[in-house]
């Protein structure tokens, strides 16, 4: 997979921007983790979840990747319910 498989048609500007940012993180690992999650969920996220996603996107890639893999603990204000959903989201077909 080389990028988003979801069309941004029908998304508001905020969701389009977040979808783009999830697929263009800086490291391929985080592009795939956040990009695939955003492809599947961006249209269904509440305003509160969008705020949480925006907060997560402010965390640098090495720290966020380490937190997702369990090697680092991030502050509680960053690791809410959406972080748990991203962490549990399948990263490849049939895997999690």
From TrEMBL:
<dbReference type="GO" id="GO:0006099">
    <property type="term" value="P:tricarboxylic acid cycle"/>
</dbReference>
<dbReference type="Pfam" id="PF03937">
    <property type="entry name" value="Sdh5"/>
</dbReference>
<protein>
    <recommendedName>
        <fullName>FAD assembly factor SdhE</fullName>
    </recommendedName>
</protein>
<keyword id="KW-0143">Chaperone</keyword>
<comment type="similarity">
    <text>Belongs to the SdhE FAD assembly factor family.</text>
</comment>
<dbReference type="InterPro" id="IPR005631">
    <property type="entry name" value="SDH"/>
</dbReference>
<dbReference type="InterPro" id="IPR036714">
    <property type="entry name" value="SDH_sf"/>
</dbReference>
